[in-house]
Amino acid sequence: MDNSQQPGESTDRSDLVSEDGKNVKSVICQCCESKVLSPGSAVFAEKELFLPSMRKKNGLSNAEGSVDGDTLTGHWFVDDMFTFENVGFTNNVGSIKYLVCADCEIGPIGWHCLDDKKSFFIALERVKHV
Ligand code: ZN
After folding, report:
1. Bond prior to 7 in cis (omega within 30° of 0)
2. How many domains does the chain divide into?
3. Would you say residue 34 lies in a domain?
4. Residue 16 lies inside a defined structural domain of this protein
5. 39 secondary structure, DSSP code
6. Is residue 96 part of a domain?
7. Domain that holds residue 109
8. Which residues crowd ion ligand 1, with CB under 5 Å?
9. pLDDT tens for residues 9-35?
10. Ligand 1 centre and the CA of 58: distance in Å?
């Protein structure tokens, strides 16, 4: 018997991504449930981005050099920072700013490169959807 089907393991995101690729649900902070994005305001994008492990903002700014974290591939893409309901930014880490919750400052929940003013990414795995 060779059954490679893995029940329970699924990358099906149809409950989060609409047919036109937008977020079906509101995107909120995992910790304090502060609203980050309204439904339909962001587009699903696959891009490999490295995000340091979740911690308070102060720890992020000091995180030069070796950092533990995750390479994440599923993100909500936004081309204008005013699309966000609430979001905070870390100090620059090189040419990168990480996005954090505006209220509790936990993060990073997302990624922004200073070289491209029109791209902001929120990692699906770092937020809740309601
Ligand atoms: Zn929060």
Report:
1. no
2. 1
3. yes
4. no
5. T
6. yes
7. 27-129
8. 29, 31-32, 34, 101, 103-104
9. 556 788 999 999 999 999 999 999 999
10. 14
Residues 54-101 have pLDDT tens digits of 877 666 655 555 578 999 999 999 999 999 999 999 988 899 999 999
- What pTM did the predictor assign? 0.85
The answer to whether position 76 is within a domain reads yes
Distance 102 CA to ligand 1 centre (A): 7
Look at residues 119, 113, 114, 115 and name the one whose alpha carbon lies nearest to residue 77: 119
Q: What is the pLDDT of residue 60?
A: 60
For 20, the token pair is 């036109």
Residue 72 one-letter amino acid:
L
Asked whether the beta carbons of 97 and 112 are under 8 A apart, the reply is yes
* The token pair that represents 102 in the structure block: 């505006």
Token look-up 């620059």 returns 92
List the CATH number of the domain containing 70: 2.170.150.10
